[in-house]
Amino acid sequence: MSRENAIIIGSDHAALELKEKIKKFLLDKGVSVEDAGTHSPASVNYADYAKKVAGAVSRGEFPRGILLCGTGLGMSMAANRFSNVRAALCSDVFSVKMSRLHNDANILVLGGRILGDILAFELVQTWLDTEFEGGRHLDRIESLDRN
User: Fold this and answer.
1) Is the model's pTM score more than 0.90?
2) Cβ–Cβ < 8 Å for 86, 142
């Protein structure tokens, strides 16, 4: 599988159902998807899956990823600890759009207990369709890596 346009996706048990629906949504649209787990409703540590997805994005193995947990909070905190990761926890279309336009978010984080399917699909599609503007925003993003 070519990973150039592929998405790596992962969730904990609390968002497993929504992850599976989003994975199908992406596959139906012809997007290559690597599922980093979880694959069971048994309780798991969200950080383990954040590490898999954010690590792969950080290393450049995948250009983008999607993470889900109950609220999205734990996943976003864990993912943003990785260099070159800009994980955006979003629950509305405007935030998703701006996360791409101005912040070049490379991981979309969603709350499985917060969002319904239809809104989640709209958020994912907006995130995929929105390109980074660059320009002054690139300077700001690069400054994040200059601690």
Assistant:
1) yes
2) no
Count of Cβ atoms closer than 10 Å to residue 69 Cβ:
29
Residue 1: is its pLDDT beyond 60?
Answer: no
User: Which residues are the active-site residues?
Assistant: 69, 102
Contact 125, 133 (CB under 8 A): no
* Domain map (residue ranges) of the chain: 7-142
Give the pLDDT mean for 37-52. 97
Contacts of 133 (CB under 8 A, 6+ apart): 101, 102
SS3 call for 106: coil
CA–CA separation, 142 and 147 (whole Å): 10
Q: Which CATH topology does 7-142 take? A: Ribose 5-phosphate Isomerase B; Chain: A, (3.40.1400)
In the predicted model, what is the mean pLDDT of residues 14-31?
Answer: 98
Burial class (CB in 10 A: 0-12, 13-18, 19+), 22: buried
